[in-house]
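Sync notes, pocket subgroup
Present: LS, DG
LS reminded everyone that the earlier model was apo-only. Rerun requested with magnesium ion included. Inputs:
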Amino acid sequence: MTLTELGWNERFEKEFAPYAKKGWVPARLIRDNKITYGALTEGGDEYEVVMSGKVYHDADCDAALPAVGDWVALEIGSGDLDHVIRARLSRQTCFSRKAPGKSSEEQVIAANVSLVCVVTDAGTDLNLRRMERFFTLIGRSGARPIVLVNKSDLFPPEQNREAAEAIRALCPEADVLVTSAMHGENVSAIRRYLTPGRSITFVGSSGVGKSSLINALLGEDWQEEGEVNEVTGKGRHTTTARELIVLEEGGILIDNPGIREVQMWTDEHTLREKFLDIEALAGQCRFHDCRHGSDAGCVVRAAVEAGTLAVERYEGFLKLDDEIARLKQRIKKRNMTIERRAKRDHRIKARNPDDRREYEADLKPRA
Ligand SMILES: Nc1nc2c(ncn2[C@@H]2O[C@H](COP(=O)(O)OP(=O)(O)OP(=O)(O)O)[C@@H](O)[C@H]2O)c(=O)[nH]1
Ligand SMILES: [Mg+2]
Ligand SMILES: [Zn+2]
């Protein structure tokens, strides 16, 4: 496997020049294992790698940390030393949600991809508002959108067509295809997008068939998915980690875990923003600690009864605190993961005397 087949180009080559002098090698991150990453180098050698303290500290927000799809400068450790990411090359495209601050919820879905492929179906998964949101995020990423209306075998042709039309109407520049991973419909049409060195990431709800489509493209059961296992009786295999796969005939696919909740894309501010009008009403309730249930003098409840506030929005508003609490849990967990990574990396450095100076510099509080 050549670097070009892995997505390398002149721009990366140029940025990499100073790192090459240090004896570091270019590597592409193909898997995020939370504490370590999987990385591929020229020739297709795979390494389990950790990030250096410097890389961690230089990142001013989560999104600046290495992510699947990133090109990095890798120091191959000799003996029992770890392989360390010394630098991350700047991204040509970045599919993520932007939010400033180190403790933010920004999540990089995939770096350096040319295409983002949103998978949905013509049934209950189809949600045009979510689709709109995807288009906004893709628009910012620098990548191009494709939408697959998958599982076409489960719905009447008319329904598939209508779904595709509705999506096209939202984003005329998006290619929208009706597919079936099960029956192979239009899988060859997806293949047209796969050219050597070009990366495509698949996103969409859990269970829409992202891994199945990738399997169909691979032409073999490389990825585990679907079907109940007769031996264990366990249900389908849900993808739990991002994973980059290089196809033999050219092209690079990145599978993603399903995006279960829209909250994954959001932050407290955005969550609250949706309910500003209701919060304004709530300010007028008789009791300041009104729960907006059967409380006397509740203006929110009155609005629902008067028909000026939709019941669904009212219910959403009641769940808001829970959602924010869950969101905060997720952020906390995420930050703990990053801290663990950094701590582990410091331990690695401490074992290597040559690195001690850099290690000590890393421990100094940052301005
Ligand atoms: N009928 C039908 N079933 C499909 C199709 N594509 C996928 N499935 C089934 O849908 C289920 C989920 O497919 P996956 O490929 O695991 O879905 P996924 O999007 O990767 O899900 P996560 O990894 O959880 O995000 C499996 O049982 C598949 O066999 C299709 O085109 N038609
Ligand atoms: Mg999957
Ligand atoms: Zn109230």
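DG: Residues 4-95 form a domain with the OB fold (Dihydrolipoamide Acetyltransferase, E2P) fold (CATH 2.40.50.140).
LS: The pocket of guanosine-5'-triphosphate (ligand 1) is lined by residues 150-151, 153-154, 180-182, 206-212, 225-226, 236, 238-239, 257-258 (CB under 6 Å).
Action: DG to write up.
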